[in-house]
Amino acid sequence: MTTTPTARAPFNRLLLTGAAGGLGKVLRESLRPYANVIRLSDIADIAPAIDDREEVVPCDLADKQAVHQLVEGVDAILHFGGVSTERSFEEILGANICGVFHIYEAARRHGVKRVIFASSNHVIGFYKQDEVIDAHSPRRPDSYYGLSKSYGEDMATFYFDRYGIETVSVRIGSSFPEPQNRRMMSTWLSFGDLTQLLERALYTPNVGHTVVYGASDNKNVWWDNRYATVLGYAPNDSSEVFREKIEAQPLPAADDPTRVYQGGAFCVAGPFGD
To answer: Which of 47, 63, 225, 250 lies 20 to 30 Å (CA to CA) from residue 131?
Structure first.
């Protein structure tokens, strides 16, 4: 049975990092039913608050003190901030690796007990597309970006075991208005399904550190969510409605990484600075 947003008592204040990004802009709207106030943060420019239910707070995730101030007074954190594509390690380090530590330290100091961590399919990107894996499969990050998300998942486990802060790590597939290529026919996550998944991640009790793959109800899937059934996530959308459009695209070569690896092109990005 699907729970409607109106059945949930809203949090007083949610923090959404990465609010200027593609998904951040979507979630700024779709998360409104779940909070009296949403605090929106990013290092990039964010559109001004539209009413008294929004707070816009610029923040550099690499700045520990700024993150500490950012987290004050929030009930839960949706951590979508950081570098979202493959870059050099040095570019990833501040926002993604130091940044996730700063988020959890601020959560600990302020007594925040629930974090939703925007992890990524790039944590397991070197698995082949003919393999089906679950949350207990060994991680095989495909990039410095994927390594940073793998580190964030370890951070979540540590802060639960040590301090009791609960996290749902969402290994987001490809969340766009529609899939853009053949690989995304398996990895696509609609905005509606993403919002439902985040609602479940916010409200489900006793999640410890739960890892869930963020994908819609696509026909050909690589990910088994058997270890996240506690969330009750039941996607409503499917990439199948886009199949004809996608299959009209030229077929990549058989050895193209977008046809071989679950992580696609990330598997062959870099090296940087040579």
So the answer is: 250
